[in-house]
Design goal:
The chain is an alpha/beta fold. Helices cover 46% and strands 15% of the residues. It has helices spanning 7-14, 18-25, 33-45, 52-59, 75-90, 104-114, 128-133, 137-144, 168-181, 197-212, 228-242, 254-266, 284-288, 300-316; strands at residues 64-69, 94-99, 121-124, 149-152, 162-166, 187-191, 222-224, 248-251, 276-280, 294-297, 327-330, 333-335. The strands form 2 sheets. Strands 2-1-3-4-5-11 form a 6-stranded parallel beta sheet, sandwiched between helices. Strands 7-6-8-9-10-12 form a 6-stranded mixed beta sheet, with helices on both faces. The longest helix is centred in the C-terminal third of the chain and has 17 residues, at 300-316. The relative contact order is 0.12.
């Protein structure tokens, strides 16, 4: 690796002051364009890199974003993080990540740890326990300390901040309407994480689609649990009793979608001829299952990139020009694969 030049070495080589080099590298209007170009090209040639610690102390900015995720093993959050990091890096920001593991205590700890000057702002998705307990004080405390927050996917209506969400309700309506249009009449709703707001919105979309199409709601084929273990306990007895009556499933998370898919094949039920299934989130399993799973794609990388842009735009705006808090809605897409019939022409 080449040795990196210092400001003093560049100044000596070009026979200018250290102050001139520093200002030229930061595009100061005090320095003429020819001098800026000469200094910047020479610095690049000599592999100069700024001392970020010194820059941060002077500007009181770390150029670093703290990202707090509920669960990095969830493909959606992994893809969203990829979008955050890529866009943040593109705009000159670094990213530090912490995982709450779906717990309130870990979420609070992560925010406390990173709020000591390490980061300029947060991008986060709320943990299951935080939503269940309706606890938002740690978010409000950060904002009160001038540390801006952008929430994505799982957000709180009780916190005034920027947000990036998907159209969960409309997604539910669209998915179930698609099943109805392909001939399904007895459509089940399955959820293994119903304690999350987004799950409730998707379920409301399911109910709305049935209502709009004159289909009676059958509570006996609706499962809404708060964990995969609870879901499995409720699902298998139901499916054994009613599996062959159901001709459509809207599964609003990947666990429930994969579970019903495997159970149907084991029971000799043909997918999609006898049972059509639509899942949510477009994870790895959606493509690996046979038949492959039709699913609602949330465009996770785009959500992450939008969240990064919202936060950086706020961080780089002048105090008297800071934008009003806003909510960006990312449209979902129904990706039809092999687990649903094609729409009639």
């Amino acid at each position: 690796m080449r040795a990196r030049a210092t400001l003093k070495q560049i100044a000596k080589e070009l026979n200018v002051s250290v102050s001139t080099v520093s200002k030229a590298l930061s595009n100061s209007p005090e320095i003429s364009e020819p001098t800026k170009i000469k200094v910047q090209e020479f610095a690049k040639l000599k592999n100069y890199k700024p001392n970020n610690i010194a820059v941060n102390l002077k500007s009181k900015r770390s150029k670093t974003i703290g990202v707090v995720l509920p669960n990095i093993l969830n493909p959606f959050f992994a893809k969203a993080f990829s979008g955050i990091e890529k866009q943040a890096n593109k705009r000159g920001y670094n990213v530090i990540t912490s995982i709450s593991n779906e717990t309130l205590d870990r979420e609070i700890y992560a925010m406390d740890m990173l709020s000591n000057g390490t980061i300029d702002g947060f991008i986060l998705s709320i943990s299951e326990e935080t939503q269940k307990e309706h606890e938002v004080k740690h978010f409000r405390d950060a904002i009160a300390d001038d540390i801006p927050i952008v929430m994505f996917d799982r957000v709180s209506e009780d916190v005034n901040c920027d947000k990036v969400i998907v159209d969960d309700f409309d997604s539910g309506v669209h998915a179930v309407t698609h099943l109805i249009k392909t001939g399904c009449k007895k459509i089940a709703l399955f959820s293994s994480f119903y304690n999350i707001n987004v799950a409730k919105l998707r379920a409301e979309g399911y109910l709305k689609a049935l209502e709009d199409n004159g289909i009676a709601i059958d509570e006996s084929i609706i499962i809404r649990t708060e964990s995969s273990e609870e879901f499995d306990e409720a699902f298998f007895p139901l499916f054994e009793a009613k599996g062959k009556e159901i001709d459509g499933v809207f599964a609003i998370d990947e666990h429930s979608a994969v579970t019903v898919h495997k159970a149907a094949l084991k029971a000799g039920i043909k997918i999609p001829d006898e049972l059509s299934i639509i899942g949510f989130a477009d994870g790895v399993w959606s493509r690996r299952l046979t038949p492959s799973l039709s699913t609602v794609s949330q465009h996770a990388p785009e959500i992450g990139a939008a969240a990064a842009d919202m936060l950086i735009d706020r961080l780089t705006s002048k105090e008297d020009e800071a934008p009003e808090y806003s909510t960006t809605i990312i449209k979902t897409e129904l990706r039809q694969r092999e687990s649903t019939k094609k729409l009639p022409e």
